[in-house]
């Protein structure tokens, strides 16, 4: 029993040493232009799906059904916060979008209308680890994230004035994201559709 246990400990130590060595020598991939391997992809997807199944909001949702004003507000937010990576109706991928090893889907081509709203809400709120998808709970309030969620869900069938912005982002309220107050400080603040708060870029 004892020699077996000792052998087990030595094997464990060797595995730990090999892992440490791989990190120390740079054998663990660190480049941003290297595609993730099959094992990494499987682990990330499986864990993401399990996390979403556990944590994503289930109907009935706290906001909705969305109004025309919600869609317009979301279209502005989308252009300011999302278009740089996900594009708009007729855009080609930006330099930023092309640089990710995990490519941001271009929603003008492949949308998420099939996904339940709760799943899309969760992704916008928390972001997706190991990808470029940011968490927006640091910068947008809950209502704005729901508005964006419904916007994503209804992309193929937006009301005309929201669709106009989706098709021509130069119509959006502001082309660049401004600094936003922390969500706790100003609940319900109407980010984006109104002029930037003072102190923002002019
Ligand atoms: C810096 C780049 C970047 C920005 C900005 C960004 N995203 Fe993403 N997003 C990504 C990447 C990369 C993925 C792919 C993640 C993956 O494959 O798991 C993604 C995935 C998603 C998905 C899941 C798509 C699917 O097919 O399941 C949704 C929904 C999404 N983003 C919405 C948004 C919204 C809404 C915004 C703006 C509020 C936004 N993203 C801003 C990079 C970005």
Automatic annotation (TrEMBL):
PROSITE patterns: CYTC
Coiled coil: none
Start and end residues of each Cytochrome c domain: 69-156
Record keywords, A-Z: Heme, Iron, Metal-binding, Signal
Stretch forming the signal peptide: 1-18
Region (Disordered): 172-202
Entry protein name: Cytochrome c domain-containing protein
Organism of derivation: Vulcanimicrobium alpinum
Keyword match Signal: yes
Domain of life where this protein originates: Bacteria
Source species taxonomy: Bacteria, Bacillati, Vulcanimicrobiota, Vulcanimicrobiia, Vulcanimicrobiales
InterPro entries: Cyt_c-like_dom, Cyt_c-like_dom_sf
GO MF term set: electron transfer activity; heme binding; metal ion binding
């Amino acid at each position: 029993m004892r020699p077996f246990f000792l052998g087990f400990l030595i094997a464990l130590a060797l595995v730990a040493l090999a892992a440490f060595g791989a990190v120390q020598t740079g054998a663990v991939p660190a480049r941003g232009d290297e595609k993730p391997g099959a094992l990494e992809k499987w682990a990330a997807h499986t864990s993401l799906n399990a996390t979403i199944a556990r944590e994503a909001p289930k109907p009935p949702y706290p906001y909705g059904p969305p109004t025309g004003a919600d869609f317009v507000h979301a279209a502005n937010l989308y252009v300011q916060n999302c278009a740089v990576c996900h594009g708009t109706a007729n855009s080609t991928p930006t330099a930023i979008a092309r640089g990710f090893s995990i490519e941001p889907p271009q929603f003008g081509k492949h949308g998420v209308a099939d996904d339940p709203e709760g799943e899309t809400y969760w992704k916008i709120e928390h972001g997706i680890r190991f990808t470029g998808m940011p968490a927006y709970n640091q910068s947008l309030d809950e209502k704005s994230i729901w508005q964006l969620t419904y916007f994503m869900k209804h992309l193929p069938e937006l009301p005309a004035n929201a669709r106009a912005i989706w098709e021509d982002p130069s119509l959006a309220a502001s082309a660049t994201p401004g600094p936003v107050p922390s969500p706790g400080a100003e609940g319900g603040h109407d980010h984006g559709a109104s002029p930037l708060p003072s102190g923002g870029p002019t």
